[in-house]
Design goal:
Layout: H1 6-15, H2 20-31, H3 34-50, H4 60-79, H5 81-85, H6 100-107, H7 110-119, H8 122-133, H9 138-145, H10 149-169
Helix pairs in contact: 2-3, 2-4, 2-8, 3-4, 4-9, 6-10, 7-10, 8-10, 9-10
Length: 179
């Protein structure tokens, strides 16, 4: 933040820093490892600071999340290029049933949901995380991911179907209750 003058530093603190948790959350879900997410989220914040003079208003959260997303994908290309090659096979997941959220709530099994989310390709994971965990609108997701709103909606639908399939096909842990 040394590159910013006092006024820009204050604006950065007011507009961008409140979204640090959302930035880390997106990085965590895209990269799956906390250590990697911390490193990439920090790099994204440094980039945001470096380019803050180019931010001329608008949605600071969407702007920051777009930087985080781009930083994550750059990191993945460099460190795990194979993960970006995994595509969703729609032929395998054409079921229409209860939503993944309903299944997760009914099962009350956060670990199972986490494992299922981590099986999704990063592009589907990011759409679900932005919509369901960060509460972003379709318009905000389109801005963060640089894809049309229609593609956001269809990707979200596919991501939900794939998550549902992963939840249905993952074994439940049997809980043992002591008496």
């Amino acid at each position: 933040m040394n590159d910013l003058d006092a006024e820009d530093r204050l604006r950065f603190e007011q507009l961008v820093l409140p979204h640090v948790d959302a930035a880390f959350n997106l990085a965590r879900w895209l990269l799956c490892r906390r250590e990697d997410a911390e490193e990439v989220a920090q790099e994204a914040l440094l980039r945001a600071c470096r380019f803050f003079r180019g931010f001329h208003g608008g949605d600071a959260r969407a702007w920051l999340l777009q930087i985080v997303r781009n930083t994550c994908y750059s990191w993945l290309e460099k460190n795990r290029p194979r993960e970006l090659m995994v595509e969703f096979n729609e032929e395998l997941h054409l079921q229409t049933c209860p939503t993944p959220e309903t299944i997760a709530i009914a099962g009350d099994d956060r670990e199972r949901l986490t494992r299922a989310l981590e099986t999704l390709p990063p592009r589907f994971r990011e759409i679900l995380v932005l919509r369901e965990l960060e509460g972003c609108s379709y318009k905000e997701i389109a801005a963060v991911t640089s894809i049309p709103i229609g593609t956001v909606m269809s990707s979200l639908s596919r991501a939900r179907r794939q998550l549902y399939s992963a939840l249905v096909n993952s074994p439940r842990k049997e809980t043992v209750r002591e008496m």
